[in-house]
Design goal:
CATH topology of the largest domain: BirA Bifunctional Protein, domain 2
Number of domains: 3
Helix content: 25-40%
Largest sheet: 9 strands, mixed
CATH superfamily of the largest domain: Bira Bifunctional Protein, Domain 2
Number of helices: 14
Distance between the termini: 25 Å
Number of strands: 31
Oligomer: single chain
Radius of gyration: 29 Å
Shape: globular
Strand content: 25-35%
Length: 576
């Protein structure tokens, strides 16, 4: 492509509403433009890069016997009622009606659609296992769309679904997908970690996230040198051993704490520490209030809590409900003598607190010297908190966990029979008996890969694309395209590279060479060939790799430059 004919509207500065590095660079380099909050237009270089990502994923999905399909973006309400998700998915679901008043949703995911497809045509164990995948747009009405295409309301996803006769067969295939995802990460040039994750609204018994490591990542992951890793929603806390305390249990004592409700302020007021507090949080789970107890310096992990309770909806209680349950305003709830009897669930760490401080369920009052099993009892004791620095790995139980920031690139799930049961997707086994199909689900955020790559690979000059993803592999920069000799050599190199099916951009614009260099670097084109009088008089060109931006340019003979560039491309693809 000649630059003068290309639609690549680069910018010196990014709009002020772009809130992270990748969003700024994608806009500045002419890849995307914002249409509305959470909605982006893909310009030619953005689409070319996206298609490179799609081709890598498609090759790896086909390699594990996947078959590509295409499902509608508009899904009927009836399908979602079958699984019960129509009423529980929440406000993220875009809902609409047609002219006949029939209700639909814009697909945020396709479990219902794909299960419906399979149940209609798969009847026998002889048709299993089966894996179907697609590339398609997804829609989620995010409360706060941010970070450009990283968390948008419309985005492209590769979603795949596998169907099996039993859990054993699904487990085998799950491992194949896991390995395929690792290959995709490597081919995209990622530094990444695979971690255990919460299954969230998709459901299922177990899942893994593939996290691209980046300081700007919006998720925190915990990991250990023993091989364990999990996102902060899933990372397990070790249950402290019960050891006899040398501290004697004291009698409970009610104390006045006027207008002091926070743990930190009460601790200071009572000359105590946050570790001595039992923090009592009132939640509503599927319409029913309950009390959740954690140590004063810990935070409730709502994902763990929801998994434990098995509820569809979980939210903090309103001040009115808190007062109805406890008899006190917000900040003074405690597990002793609730006004209304409710279920109490406690985190492991609460078991070992002797003479704790808790809210008194009275305005402006707390109670000192409260002890579990003497002054109150928990209905359930479980791992309910978010891990933090200093926590020991739950697997090896030796090393302290380490923490990194990451961007979720892919997520794979063991769904079991969650959807096949609710939608009656069955097969006949070799004995003629009906069985529910066992399923797996495997997603990749395709547009997100573009942003994740940039967040991991950029410098002060712009994007640094790996060769596998770059919209153009080579930029040819004639110092003066009006010079006939320079123009002739530039066009000859351009034709040879095109003939070898290498994506190349010839910068024929009537601009200063510095501007051409800046645009090539901003766009992240991996290799640059500069043609100018200085070197051309000796039959040479100047070659520079974008990755080695601080190294000196190489001088390569005109007749050797095409083969040299091809070798560099092959070498890069081999190592990415």
């Amino acid at each position: 492509m000649y630059f003068s004919k290309a639609f690549i509207p680069t910018l010196k500065e990014a709009p002020s509403d772009m809130d992270n590095v990748s969003a700024k660079l994608m806009v500045r380099s002419g890849m995307i433009r914002k249409l509305a909050s959470g909605f982006f237009e893909l310009l030619p270089t953005g689409l070319k890069t996206l298609e490179n990502v799609i081709e890598i994923i498609r090759e790896e999905m086909n390699e594990i016997d996947g078959q590509e399909v295409r499902l509608p973006l508009l899904l009927p309400k009836d399908l979602w009622l079958e699984t019960g998700r129509w009423n529980v998915y929440g406000k993220e679901l875009f809902r609409l009606k047609d002219r006949k008043d029939t209700e639909f949703c814009l697909a945020p995911t396709h479990e219902e659609g794909i299960t419906n497809m399979v149940r209609n045509d798969v009847k026998s164990y002889r048709q299993l296992p089966l894996m179907l995948y697609q590339f398609g747009m997804k829609f989620r009405d995010e409360m706060r769309p941010r970070f450009g295409v990283m968390r948008a309301r419309e985005f492209m996803m590769k979603d795949a679904y596998s169907f099996h006769v039993d859990e054993t067969d699904m487990e085998k295939y799950y491992k194949r997908v896991y390995e395929a995802y690792e290959k995709i990460c490597k081919r995209c040039g990622f530094k990444y970690r695979v971690v255990e994750a919460s299954s969230g609204a998709i459901g299922g018994s177990f899942s893994h996230e593939f996290m691209v490591l980046a300081e700007t990542g919006e998720e925190e992951i915990a990991w250990c040198n023993c091989g364990y890793g999990a996102n902060s929603e899933k990372a397990e806390c070790v249950r402290p051993e019960k050891t006899p305390s040398s501290e004697q249990m004291l009698n409970i004592e009610e104390v006045l704490t006027p207008n002091i409700g926070s743990v930190e302020d009460v601790a200071k007021f009572l000359s105590s520490t946050k570790e001595k507090f039992v923090k009592t949080m009132i939640y509503i789970a599927d319409g029913h209030p309950l009390a959740v107890l954690v140590r004063g310096d810990h935070d409730v992990n709502e994902s763990k809590l929801q998994t434990l309770l098995g509820c569809n909806e979980l939210e903090l209680a309103t001040p009115a409900v808190i007062e109805e349950v406890t008899g006190a305003k917000v900040g003074f709830a405690g597990p002793v003598n609730f006004k209304k009897q409710i279920k109490i669930v406690a985190d492991y760490a609460v078991e070992n607190i002797v003479n704790a401080v808790v809210g008194a369920n009275k305005d402006d009052k707390h109670i000192k010297n409260v002890n579990i099993n003497r002054d109150f009892k928990a209905d359930v004791i479980a791992d309910l908190r978010t891990v933090g620095k200093g926590d020991i790995c739950s697997r090896c139980k030796k090393e302290k966990l380490q923490f990194s920031r990451g961007i979720e690139m892919g997520h794979i799930f063991k769904l079991g029979t969650k959807y096949s049961k609710s939608m009656n997707a069955t097969y006949l086994d070799d004995q003629g008996k009906d069985n529910f199909i066992v399923m797996g689900c495997y997603g990749i955020g395709v547009t997100r890969i573009l942003a994740a790559t940039i967040e991991q690979s950029y410098d002060e000059n712009g994007i640094i694309w790996p060769v596998s993803l770059a919209p153009y592999k080579v930029s040819i920069v004639p110092v003066d395209f009006k010079n006939e000799e320079i123009k002739k050599v530039a066009e000859e190199i351009y034709k040879q590279l095109k003939k070898d099916k290498i994506e190349v951009l010839l910068d024929d614009r009537d601009e200063r060479v510095g501007i051409k260099f800046k645009d090539a670097d901003l766009m992240g084109i991996p290799f640059r060939i500069t043609i100018g009088e200085k070197h051309l008089k000796d039959g040479n060109t100047e070659f520079k790799a974008r990755k080695d931006d601080k190294s000196k340019a190489e001088i390569i003979k005109v007749e050797q430059i095409v083969e040299y560039v091809k070798s560099k491309i092959q070498e890069s693809l081999k190592h990415e």
